[in-house]
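Our preliminary data section would be incomplete without showing what the modeling component actually yields. Below, a chain of 283 amino acids is followed by its predicted structure, encoded as tokens that our downstream tools consume directly.
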Amino acid sequence: MGRREIELPQLPASGPLYRRAVLGALPGVGGRRSGELPDVALSVQGVTVDRAHLADYDRVCGFRLTDELPGTYPHVLGFPLALRLISDPAFPIPLAGVVHVGNRITVHRPVDAGETLDFTTYAENLRPHPRGRQLDVVLVASVDGAEVWRGVSTYLGRERSATGGQRKQGEWAPAPTGPVRWRVGPRVGRDYARVSGDHNPIHTSRLGARLLGYPRPIAHGMWSKARCLAALASRLPAAYTVEVAFKLPVPLPSTVNFSTTPDGGFFLHDARTGRPHLVGQVT
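Predicted structure:
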């Protein structure tokens, strides 16, 4: 059975979607979550790039200022469409408290800021996890009917009834020697929220972070991925796939080590303890 295609006239505004998600998370307000994925694919056509916004994003994430879109930028551009899908009350995993555990991006060719993009998003592969349930949200960007970019974000919805489960031992392996040390400042969460539209309070508010179990705000996973990609920019081919697993959150502020391997691997580790924040691979 195919997905119902729903075309929106324009990208939705992120603010009302977050407010709806927060309201739906309040006791006695949100309804029972569905056990199935929505059979819909949302789309919007004619999305253009604001070059001032692109430049702001480049600065926040460490990219050079050019008209070629960074590999992570279409994720930001189409994020409101994916947010509309995820924030629906019938979505099987509630937006409030959702954990972004992985992301895979495929760049089929360089995309120029002057091109007009069409976006489509849908969810797939709902599956059990030792700490709850997880699923994939797919976001596709096309130009003149041809796919130029695809992103797959894996989200975990933690559930109290889950059995827990031990982390794989390899996830706690000692960190490789980091040739580059980055200071991640306290404003990173707010700055990235401004350019990405992802205003989840876990990234921007000490109170919001505490309500969700963190002593202080944490960096967006996609900021961490973008910052790593910016450091790798001179080594990237015209077409590539970059996949990351988000391990432990990056608290704000903190100091991290960025390191690479000859086979296209890259890592973020806590500079003091060596515990992993991100493990990535470019192919």
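The mean pLDDT is 89. The chain has seven helices and eleven strands. Preliminary results of this kind motivate Aim 1 of the renewal.
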